[in-house]
Design a protein that fits this description.
The relative contact order is 0.38. By secondary structure, the protein is an alpha+beta fold. It has a single domain (about 1-69), classed as Lrp/AsnC effector binding domain/regulation of amino acid metabolism (RAM) domain (Alpha-Beta Plaits, 2-Layer Sandwich). The chain has a four-stranded antiparallel beta sheet with strand order 2-3-1-4. The model has no long low-confidence stretch (mean pLDDT about 95). A hairpin with a 6-residue loop joins β2 (about 25-30) and β3 (about 40-45). It is built from two helices and four strands. Helix content is about 20%, strand content about 40%.
Length: about 70
């Protein structure tokens, strides 16, 4: 499965969140962006259990998961 994770971080935490995301094998790409979200990550995994790990990263306040076919 492939998914885009749209992430809102707490103020000033985007860089720390990005560093933590890059440590996960399932995360293929991470970018800091402007707009309503602070970080966008692209995941590739057999299942989306990884999203629980991502939501537990300190500094993440909200996520939206957009899965592709």
């Amino acid at each position: 499965m492939k998914a885009f994770i749209l992430i809102e971080t707490t103020a000033g935490k985007a860089k720390e969140v990005t560093t933590a995301l890059k440590q996960l094998d399932e995360v293929k790409s991470v970018d800091v962006v402007t707009g309503p979200y602070d970080v966008i990550a692209i995941l590739e995994a057999e299942n989306m259990d990884i999203t629980a790990k991502i939501k537990a990263i300190p500094g993440i306040s909200r996520t939206v998961v957009c899965m592709t076919e």
